[in-house]
Amino acid sequence: MFERADLYHGDTLIRRGRPPKEAPKKPVSIRLDPDLLEYFRASGPGWQTRVNDLLRQAAGLPKAG
To answer: Residue 12 falls within a domain, yes or no?
Structure first.
């Protein structure tokens, strides 16, 4: 089973999964009011992405693609 876990082409290890992003997101720590945090978390999965989109909009930056 473990022999099949890595895929090699000759001596080169072939990476699986998604390729690395050109500009990956960076983790940060931010302090938010409790009611604001509750509002976004209550909107369900993807709330952090929605906060990111709203911050980009407030800053006048184009939507990331």
So the answer is: no
**Is residue 47 a contact partner of residue 54, using CB atoms and an 8 Å limit?**
no
Structural domain includes residue 9: no
For the stretch 2-20, pLDDT in tens is 666 777 788 888 777 788 8
* Cα angle, residue 52 at apex, residues 46 and 56 outer, rounded to 5°: 145
Residue 42 phi, psi (nearest 5):
-70, -20
Expressed as residue numbers, the domain containing 64 is: 20-65
- Which DSSP state fits 18? P
Give the pTM: 0.66
Per the CB < 8 A criterion, the answer to whether 7 and 16 are in contact is: yes
